Amino acid sequence: MTMTIRLYRAADKAACLALFNSNMPKFFTADERTEFDRFLDAPVGRYFVLEVPDGAIVGCGGYEVTSADATAKLNWGMVDRARHRDGLGHRLLAHRIADIKADASIRKIVMDTSQHVAGFFAAHGFRTTRVIPDGYKPGLDQVEMCLDL
Questions:
Q1: What residues have CB less than 8 Å from 30, skipping those under 6 apart?
Q2: Would you say 59 and 80 are in contact if contact means Cβ atoms under 8 Å apart?
Q3: CA 94, CA 69: separation in Å to the nearest integer?
Q4: How far is it between the farthest Cα atoms of the chain?
Q5: Residues 15, 6: contact at Cβ < 8 Å?
Q6: What is the pLDDT of residues 106-133, one digit of tens each?
């Protein structure tokens, strides 16, 4: 299936919120939804959507760069929960990493996620730098990870 990864537009907001909703409560908390909603009103850095040919958005995610320490931080990456394990997350992550690597000044990528998704990022070369038990909510640990470029 042909898919397109393109920059987020304001008209994509409802679809991105629906993706978020499909991943609650296992991967995101209800409190984070408000934060994500605000983020979508004025995304920081570069934010992408993964679109299938019929125009449906099945994934989203982006990053921001901190030039002071030559670091890119992944933000708000997700795929429609019904489409997990279809390779969409791999495709979206590969796109974000390639986009980051296009800037030779960036030396590393950092991000945080839950224990449920850390293995996905580890399979792409990210290493765990810190785990905060119950960092998001009871039973949902915050796992900080890094990929050196």
A1: 24
A2: yes
A3: 22
A4: 41
A5: no
A6: 999 999 999 999 999 999 999 999 999 9
Dihedral of CA atoms 51, 6, 98, 73 in degrees, nearest 10, equals: -100
In angstroms, the CA 112 to CA 71 distance is 14
Q: Quick: pLDDT tens for 52-67.
A: 988 899 999 999 998 7
**Helices 13-22 and 30-41, packing angle to 10 deg:** 160
CA pair distance 61, 34, nearest whole angstrom: 17
Domain ranges of the chain: 4-105
d(CA 141, CA 64): 23
- State which fold the 4-105 domain adopts: Aminopeptidase (3.40.630)
Task: Output the average pLDDT for the chain.
Answer: 94
d(CA 16, CA 40): 8
C-alpha distance from residue 134 to each of 73, 122, 123, 124, 129 (Å): 21, 20, 23, 24, 16
Residue 82: what pLDDT?
A: 85
